[in-house]
């Protein structure tokens, strides 16, 4: 595999902007140069490059990228440019208005922390003049819609402390609401999953297993279905191990015939600056092959080069 020649990040945002402009000039675009710069700049560096580019050339860098690049490379680069909260807002705007994708919307909402969601809600409203809750309400229904709305609006602690009595009480309530009865009391699942902290949900899951001998995830899958099930499983797995959850999402996107590039791009781009090392470790643990190798065999061209540059060195 070719190794990328990375320009040292000693280059200033201004130099980067000039090099990008050069890459756009002439016939065709020097995609390798664009990738070499942008894939190796963090969120604040990318913002500085965008500012410099606009100052120097009186045009938006993202507009220029949009006209110079195409296909999956264009999708990935344009999603990579903004900071995480703005990026999430863009993904949700698209998934809730243009290309309706409730799976993507559910994944993003249910896998983010309370502070990430807070920031995202403010930004969504600032960018689009609509409340995220209203956008969600317009596209969802039933238990799924109610769970997402509750998840967006209920404050949850991000601390690690849990109340054992509450944990045992919730485990029992979930057992009574699902496996113990005929039919399912969805409201109990909704309330507990939308209002408890990650640490608490993880503790409930482990209490459930030790008390009832089966896993809470199995109970969720047996008692619910569709988007509601997906939302509950996402909340549960991200409480226990987000790296493992996203490794599974990536594996599914690449498994079988064809690759779900939208998912591949969304997950890689949104997690690179958050927990990609954990995702790579979990992927390797489960599939005995590195995430880099899997992405390498499912993609090609500059698109492949860009994703691999984001993933970084191929450590197991």
From TrEMBL:
Source superkingdom: Eukaryota
Name of the featured protein: Uncharacterized protein
